[in-house]
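We give its fold:
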Amino acid sequence: MDEPRKPLPPPVKPKALPPVPELGKSARPKPPPPVKGSTSGADELPKPVEAIPVAPETSAKKPAAQPKLKAPGTDPVLPVCNVIDCSGDQQHFWRFAGGKREMKLVDLREAELDTRLEAKHMRRDRSQMWHAHCQNDAWLPVDQVLFRVLQLPQCDPKELPQMVELQLERLSPLPVSQVVWTCQVAPDYGGERDLQTVVVMIAARAVVEQHIGRLEAVGCQPDRLETPVLHQVLATPEGGERPDGAWIYPHKPKNRPYCVVAWWDEGVLMNITVVFMSSVDYLNELSEHLTATTWAGEAEGWLTGATRWHLVVDKTTAEDWLPVLNEWAGQGITVEEPPHATELAALSASRAGRSLDEANLLPPEYRARKRADDIDRVWIGAVGWMLLVYALAVGGYQVGLKWMTDERNLAKKAADKVDEGLALKKRLLEEKSIIEEQQQRRTTAIECFRVVADNLPSNLSLGSFTYRESSRFARERSELMMLNGGMTPNSNQQLENFIAKLESMVMVDPLKEQERNMFRNLNYSQGRNQKIWNLTARLNYEDEETP
């Protein structure tokens, strides 16, 4: 291993500051325990450590403790938001549900990088069709992002991306076609100014696409790609006072440690740099970079006065770094406790309601494709529901039609039975009428025979008696009685008297109980020798007119 180089002296040695007293314990709560079945998301939060003073002890004002991180501005609270971190050695997943004023943590999981996320958490919301919002917030490794800070004139937020794009070729070390960029307006604590501070983030397109592929492999379809350290930088430092100095945020991955340094001057964010080190033992590389940046800031005019140094690190790292950094800086360095990853995730979720065009390194074409997929999925779901409703309607129609057909068949069978009963009744009535008619005719015939027998004179003899009925299908009912017989000579008067009696003969109608003549149209004749007589008579009925 090469011998570490000695740190360069600072260009201007600042006046010695009074020792920094011990910081109180942070008021932020511990992160919630992971869900059952998953491992812990991180180690227990370290306590604040005491800064190592170098200058002589004098009376000094105690600095305010680091407040809980809060997002600049007010963003709408979403119903649900997932935060996924696959930028390290393990996969971290947080799920937040929207409350009345803030997002509440409802699920926390830690697993291997290739562990697939639960599909029920990754299911896309149907409201994405008419309102695109951040449902899945993914973190990009900080060491893969280049930060640039610009001071631009105040303008309409819609015009800001165009202003940044005009300077993109100057800011990006790679061709514009090979990078993905975004911007974020930083909070300004420097009072009323005509300029606004804009943080530009640039990442190689190949790196972003590779990270998106890694997220999609575990079932995540991100709506936003961002770096969590930006939330730390943009959070209000020093309890809301005007920040002034440099904040150092160390990161110690296994492959290559690095530090993010945010430079503030009189409440205005001036620069953000990422310093890579060979290892945590080579702090001289960090001090050399800080020295060079200090010179550049003083030369360019954005760094004025003495620089106050802040180290946002845990207790163990602070004990190793503070002696070297204090000796290099020649003053006491303020140590601040870093936020837990769950706090950063909660901050990302609380700011998920902002526009997807703001601080989002997700390529625009990917967002457009996801937007089209969301619309297609909603339409396909709507068409599926329509087909289901149509199928249910057709099924209901078929069932109703079958029921109505069965009911109609049953009604038809009942009507057929009624018709059969009516036809049977009609036939029986007709048979009854025929039988009654036949009975009446026979009774009439017997009555006619009796009348003839009672009134036949002694000098007349009856040779034959014929009673003939008309057909039941004849247009007119006609019943004839034909008599013939013999007579003694000189019996014409008795024959005429006999015929006269028959003409005057009456009978009682059995239906109306009224009397009526029995015969009509009586015709008689005698033979040549006047020994034979013939008589033809037609029976009289009420429905026939008597001539």
